[in-house]
Amino acid sequence: MSIYLDNSATTRPAPSVVRAVEEALTVQYGNPSSAHRLGVAARRLLDESRTRVALLLGVSPEEIVFTSGATEANNLAILGVARAARALPLSSYDDRERKEREGKAAGAESRPHLITTAVEHPSVLEPFRRLEDEGWEVTYVAVDRQGQLDLAALSRALKPETVLLSTMWVNNETGVVHPLQGIREVLIQFEKTQGRRPLWHVDAVQALGKLPVSPRELGIDLLSLSGHKMHGPKGVGALYVRRTVRLQPLVWGGGQERGLRSGTENLPGIAGLGVACQEARERLAADPEASYLRRLRSLLWDGIRESIPGARLHGPGPDTGAVAPHILNVGFPGTRGEVLVRYLSERGVHVATGSACHSRRPEPSHVLGAMGLRPDEIQASLRFSLSWENTEAEIREAVAILREVVAEVRSLTGWKGRDD
Ligand SMILES: Cc1ncc(COP(=O)(O)O)c(C=O)c1O
What we know:
The protein is α/β, with parallel strands linked by helices. It contains 15 helices and 13 strands. It has two domains: about 5-10 and about 290-415, Aspartate Aminotransferase, domain 1 (Alpha-Beta Complex); about 60-260, Type I PLP-dependent aspartate aminotransferase-like (Major domain) (Aspartate Aminotransferase, domain 2). Bound molecules: pyridoxal-5'-phosphate. Pyridoxal-5'-phosphate binds near residues 123, 172, 205, 237 and 357.
């Protein structure tokens, strides 16, 4: 028996995705840049896949840049914008005339500034840290106890020198949905007073296929996605780059992907990603609220709450709109997450600790830390992440096994009851 509840770490590729990957490896194996018939067929598949990704996002195919995954897409967005901005005189971003009106010396250097949040994925936080080393000022906006972004703090952080804001759509550890509409309004207000606003990048990895994602409606300039989080292949992703956004590439070479990402395209991966996007679009059209996933999530939380004493939800309640339909983060006082993961896995239930899907480093989660949880609370948490493939029967079975495993671990640690 295997119950897979770690879909935010990765998902099982859909059978149609596997077929598309195999076909690209065996039939359309030409180089999309070649002029012969095989090359032309490969180019056609590349274009078709780009269109499928663009349709899911409601953008133009020319605005999609294929990458090796969301890590690269996030790096390209952040480092690419920052380095393109550096390549220009700062005054072209800051509006020389406005500076003169304000009596500052034209061209006087202010420290260029970037904003992100304290709860981003490492593939966002690390590029910002590198930029800090390069002399940029970075503001990391805080979240509250529920993991929700402090919009007032975001508004205060914005400055005329701010070049880029990067916020995720759905947090990968807690499922918290950032208030993108609120962020948009903060940016609109800022633009009204300053005459310009920073570019806005969104890491939408955990939102794609679960929530309607429409960057144009929200005024998002750059948006990252990953194939393997949505039943596509690993090692492929994409960055939406709004038409007029200037980016400096990270990878230089033959000029593929409009010069933004050189290198022969990973056509098998891209074909699989295209199919995954098409299926995600069809699924969302049939169930726009992702109510199937929401039902599973509620079943899981209700089962845990009713049968495991002291279990604590990390993040907003399931009935609020502020949480994604597929992620549940729960603390089990008197246990350790990594022990639960091992015990559960031995019994066929696969989940993750609260501390992310990005590495095997046993560092406490920075996301739960930013929400003000104590280290012992962080270490006692588990993340459950669902997919359309899970069933109600699996959730009931997982709850029953979890109840036994938590009781077993607590009997070893001597936990007697609530500890708060
Ligand atoms: C929110 C978020 N952003 C980015 C990534 C990185 O994606 P990839 O594995 O495609 O590099 C992940 C997954 O680890 C994620 O959950």
